[in-house]
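In response to the reviewer comment on reproducibility (Comment 2.3), we provide here a single inverse folding case reported in full, input and output, so that an independent group could reproduce the run without further information from us. The structure tokens appear first.
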């Protein structure tokens, strides 16, 4: 069994789960540098929780966050800034 390490801890939330009226149920943390590519090209991103999906929406302040992604993100060491 092997463990994969994320190369960049700078993340942003995106959505996968949809409700019947097309509002997202939760947003997920994904690698920031993959968001634009996914939105434009339709490629899939991998959230911290392991969910795989294409980016289709952006979160608004106060949007619900995937509990698993939030727990993983809060456990990551600080950093990931562009000046490193």
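Designed residues, in position order:
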């Amino acid at each position: 069994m092997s463990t994969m390490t994320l190369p960049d801890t700078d993340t942003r939330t995106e959505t996968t789960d949809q409700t019947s009226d097309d509002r997202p149920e939760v947003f997920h943390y994904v690698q920031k540098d993959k968001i634009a590519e996914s939105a434009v090209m339709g490629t899939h991103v991998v959230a911290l929780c392991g969910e795989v999906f294409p980016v289709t929406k952006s979160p608004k302040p106060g949007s619900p966050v995937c509990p698993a992604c939030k727990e993983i993100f809060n456990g990551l060491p600080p950093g990931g800034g562009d000046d490193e």
